[in-house]
């Protein structure tokens, strides 16, 4: 018998900027990614989401493919500036109609929508007012969330507020690799606090709305392992856990920051600054569920001397993201080092399915029996085309092992309710362009964005039909 319960949501995921295109269509306002991706050398080979894979104009074709695949649910994000071009105020009814039609099309194919309100594409007008560093952005987010609840809440039961705060704040305000391209940890901490405030206020608004359903938050799940048993490596690993996990999960699942880390940031930089009522707002508006995005684990070492390194692999040339002496890390805190026994992707992400089991159980141990959805998990690769067929055997192997890891966690008592591989379709991979492929559906950019089912499409179709049985 399958370890997966009846009603388990087998799905797949995308995000608005990465698939929709239509970046100026029908009254949509500009986002920070629309502006950033047009900067010289900001992305791999100057790629951007102006057209992406044109899901905006081809969503019915794409949803038909989802139906053929047998998907039970589809996780996607809404473009805030498509609905509110300046982030607040005047509603763009054409944007509302697009998402309303998409939701109806999904339901016609018996596919349950799971909406992410924010997957990084902040309206540019709000960034020009200060972005997430301005508390007014949190207020604007709640206005946006209320609009979405009003227009779509009659048909959508699963909502999440934010996707991967560690990425859009970490790369936006610490490494500077993403918009708004700031490098200041104090500003990062305050911006992150405003995200948590926005989340909690949006959860409160959801519950006040009276619409049925559940609302959660989506975080990166990145387990850490110390390089050695040396006390300094173990301490560095615990600090990485605190920053990458506890700081991001505690506010939405416990309603508070980890006390020791909070004391450190406030001692160092005087942030986060709390407005009156913030404590109660966080404490009284906990998530109904947590979404976990799992791709890799990191091996952690002490970093007493190294400067912060900002090197990353965006080319898909294996090894370029883990050069000795150029590891990503923070002086005096920790660094991420290559595991000599690890198996890595072309983008230098370690493939370690056991980390998914361990990570799910670690969340259960710290936060109790919170419902869990695996909201992203996938292999970014340059898929081979052989005699016209996209033969992505490596993806099949990767997903098979991670599905088995989820089954193991369920058998050990975790309440995992759904699995959303990243991604349904090949899409724009942010800074990596279109060469880093994740999808079950191939997009031929040389043939008018024609869709083609990959080998993994037919494999996943059988997985869904068998409720996770991989025989």
Structure explained in plain terms:
- It is a single chain.
- By secondary structure, the protein is an alpha/beta fold.
- The protein has a single domain (9-465), classed as Glycosidases (TIM Barrel, Alpha-Beta Barrel).
- The chain has 15 helices and 16 strands.
- The strands form four sheets. It has an eight-stranded parallel β-barrel with strand order 1-2-3-4-5-7-11-14, surrounded by five helices. A four-stranded mixed β-sheet has the order 6-8-10-9, with helices on one face.
- A hairpin with a 2-residue loop joins strand 12 (385-386) and strand 13 (389-390).
- Helix 3 packs parallel to helix 5, helix 7 packs parallel to helix 9 and helix 13 packs parallel to helix 14.
- The radius of gyration is 21 Å and the shape is globular.
- It starts with 8 loop residues before the first strand and ends in a 6-residue tail after the last helix.
Brief digest:
The active site is at 376 (nucleophile). This protein is an alpha/beta fold and 471 residues long.
Oligomerization category of the chains in this entry: single chain
Task: Give the low-pLDDT segments.
Answer: none
Looking at the structure, the CATH topology is TIM Barrel
For the biggest sheet, the summary is:
8 strands, parallel, barrel
Number of domains: 1
Number of H- or I-type helical stretches: 15
Identify the overall geometry. Answer: globular
Pfam family, one: Glyco_hydro_1
GO cellular component, one term: cytosol
EC number: 3.2.1.21
GO biological process, one term: carbohydrate catabolic process
């Amino acid at each position: 018998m399958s370890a997966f319960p009846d009603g388990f949501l087998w799905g797949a995921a995308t995000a608005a900027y990465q698939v929709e295109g239509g970046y100026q269509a029908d009254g949509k306002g500009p986002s920070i990614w629309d502006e950033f991706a047009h900067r010289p050398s900001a992305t791999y080979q100057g790629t951007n989401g102006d057209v992406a894979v044109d899901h905006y104009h081809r969503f019915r074709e794409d949803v038909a493919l989802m139906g053929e695949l047998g998907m039970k649910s589809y996780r996607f994000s809404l473009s805030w500036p498509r609905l509110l071009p300046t982030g607040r105020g005047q509603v763009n009814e054409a944007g509302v109609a697009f998402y309303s039609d998409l939701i109806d099309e999904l339901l016609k194919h018996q596919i349950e929508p799971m909406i992410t309100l924010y997957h990084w594409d902040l309206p540019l007008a709000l960034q020009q007012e200060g972005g997430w560093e301005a508390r007014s952005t949190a207020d604007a987010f709640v206005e946006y969330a209320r609009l979405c609840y009003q227009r779509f809440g009659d048909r959508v039961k699963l909502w999440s507020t934010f996707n991967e705060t560690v990425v859009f704040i970490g790369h936006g305000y610490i490494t500077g690799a993403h918009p708004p391209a700031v490098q200041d940890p104090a500003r990062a901490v305050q911006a992150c606090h405003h995200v948590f405030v926005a989340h909690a206020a949006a959860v409160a608004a959801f519950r006040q709305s009276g619409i049925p359903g559940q609302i959660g938050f989506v975080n990166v799940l990145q387990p850490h392992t110390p390089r050695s048993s040396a006390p300094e490596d173990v301490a560095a690993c615990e600090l990485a856990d605190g920053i990458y996990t506890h700081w991001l999960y505690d506010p939405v699942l416990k309603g508070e920051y980890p006390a020791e880390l909070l004391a450190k940031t406030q001692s160092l930089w005087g942030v986060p600054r709390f407005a009156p009522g913030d404590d109660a707002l966080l404490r009284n508006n906990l998530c109904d569920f947590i979404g976990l995005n799992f791709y890799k684990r990191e091996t952690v070492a002490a970093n007493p001397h190294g400067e912060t390194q900002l090197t990353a692999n965006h080319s898909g040339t294996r090894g370029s993201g883990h050069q000795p002496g150029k590891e990503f890390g923070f002086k005096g805190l920790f660094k991420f080092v290559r595991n000599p026994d690890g198996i890595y992707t072309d983008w230098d992400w370690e493939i370690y399915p056991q980390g998914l089991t361990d990570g799910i159980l670690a969340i259960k141990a710290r936060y109790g029996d919170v419902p869990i959805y695996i909201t992203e998990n996938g292999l970014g690769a340059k898929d081979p085309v052989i005699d016209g067929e996209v033969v992505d055997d490596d993806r099949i192997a990767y997903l098979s092992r991670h599905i088995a890891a989820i089954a193991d966690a369920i058998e050990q008592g975790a309440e995992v309710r759904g699995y959303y591989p990243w991604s349904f379709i090949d899409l724009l991979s942010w800074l990596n362009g279109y060469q880093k492929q994740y999808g079950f559906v191939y997009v031929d950019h040389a043939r008018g964005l024609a869709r083609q089912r990959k080998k993994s499409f037919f494999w996943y179709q059988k997985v869904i039909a068998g409720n996770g049985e991989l025989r």
